[in-house]
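Field log, afternoon session.

UNIT: design team B
ACTIVITY: writing a sequence onto a fixed backbone
BACKBONE:
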């Protein structure tokens, strides 16, 4: 498998402009999601986990009741790559 390439600042800015809800925080993509309740939040995480495993690209995240907080980065290359934006796009599609 080919190692993903780190995106430059201009590339990151352009992708963020078309990715609602996400921002750059501590050099990672970051978003907070809110759901109706714990079951919906956990269901979202379960759906994302299946996608993330298939991508072999796993989020840093936490869940408290109806909230899920996510940070994305590609650890093995030390920065943001297309994988991060692809996973963020999947999350946006799955979120209410």
């Amino acid at each position: 498998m080919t190692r993903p390439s780190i995106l430059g600042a201009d590339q990151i800015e352009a992708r963020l402009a078309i990715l609602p809800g996400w921002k750059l925080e501590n050099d990672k993509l970051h978003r907070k999601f809110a759901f109706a309740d714990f079951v919906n939040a956990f269901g979202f995480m379960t759906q994302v986990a299946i996608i993330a495993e298939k991508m072999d690209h796993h989020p840093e995240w936490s869940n408290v009741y109806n909230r899920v907080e996510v940070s994305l980065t590609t650890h093995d290359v030390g920065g943001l790559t297309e994988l991060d934006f692809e996973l963020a796009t999947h999350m946006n599609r799955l979120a209410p």
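LOG NOTE: The mean pLDDT is 95.
NEXT ACTIVITY: expression trials, pending approval
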